[in-house]
Amino acid sequence: MTQLETAMAILMNTFDKYAAGEGKKDTLTKAEAKTLLEKELPGLIKATKNPGEVDKLLKGLDFNGDSEIDFSEFVVLVASLTCACHDRAPKK
Questions:
Q1: C-beta separation of 82 from 38 below 8 A
Q2: How far is CA 71 from CA 26, 63, 92, in A?
Q3: Which residues pair with 70 in a beta bridge?
Q4: Molecular function (GO) terms listed (predicted)?
Q5: Residues of the chain scoring pLDDT < 70
Q6: What is the model's pLDDT at position 7?
Q7: In 3D, which of 26, 4, 23, 6 has the Cα closest to residue 15?
Q8: What is the reported pLDDT for 3?
Q9: Contact at 8 Å (CB) between 19 and 32?
Q10: Among 22, 28, 45, 68, which has the minimal tally of Cβ within 10 Å of its Cβ?
């Protein structure tokens, strides 16, 4: 697999791993999403000075208002964070 194919597989596997915890197997509950962020993006959580910001972020991801995060909503989060990191990273 190419690097991009591997990255896509990792995204899918990571989402599925946390979505399988409770509720529907194809969505993340708020608790599952919070666990995913804490385990997979610990630097982001530590950098957040206000714990309420994480809840605000999770609520903002729920575009369709169903109180769950589906894969498409998860990918938007990852893409947004990736863009933010890319913009701040020094260019080689």
A1: no
A2: 7, 12, 32
A3: 27
A4: calcium ion binding; calcium-dependent protein binding; transition metal ion binding
A5: 49, 51, 88-92
A6: 96
A7: 26
A8: 98
A9: yes
A10: 22
